[in-house]
Amino acid sequence: VTISGTNLAVPHIRVRLVSDAAVIEGVIKSAADTQINAVFDLTGTIPGVYDLEVVTSTGIDILADAFTVLDSSLPDLQLTLDASQNQYALSDTLTFTLTVKNNSLVAASGVSFSQTFPLGISLGEVADCEEIPLVGEDGYQCLVGELDAMEAQTFTITARVNDETLSNVQVTEAVVSSTEPERWLPDNTDQAFFWIDSILVWLPVLVR
Questions:
Q1: Where is pLDDT greater, at 184 or 154?
Q2: Strand 189-197 to strand 87-89: parallel, antiparallel, or no bridges (unpaired)?
Q3: Taking the CB of residue 123, how many other CB atoms lie within 10 A of it?
Q4: What's the rounded mean pLDDT across residues 203-207?
Q5: What span, in angstroms and rounded, lies between the C-alpha atoms of 79 and 1?
Q6: 101 neighbors 77 (Cβ within 8 angstroms)
Q7: Which residues pair with 156 in a beta bridge?
């Protein structure tokens, strides 16, 4: 790890990673006035978010949330969701591409994803998936099953507008999950933004 700052070449300087559950001491390999190179042994450490602390005789400087230590024995699911175009007419078929990937070196089991739509938009179909309607929401769930290490699967979703008054920017959201703990959750959810333009339906009439 390279740490940059000022007045770092001082005697008895220490660097460490600190969380509520653990402290990981670093071994300084080289130190100059503006830069320190240090090594942290993460073998067997407790996963979590760690602050970086630089300790000198004059005090402690802290860089909050500097490192995230992950558990490599857990799966790591990621989901991306994209609309095929930025703008649709009311009569268009809305098409989305959804990809789920396991970024871990271990398989993930019980994988599923769900997608919700705004009011006025309903699901057409999900290619290669038997969708399960969500209760109380406009959306569906798809059961993927097992994702091998570093495996990715991509699905094409179609939807339709069933409210002729719908317009402006809309957003659909999807989330992936599994039946076991994961090592990193922030990339399990994604959104796709698109524009519904009711004017496009009437343009041919106006031109004539």
A1: 154
A2: parallel
A3: 19
A4: 47
A5: 29
A6: yes
A7: 97
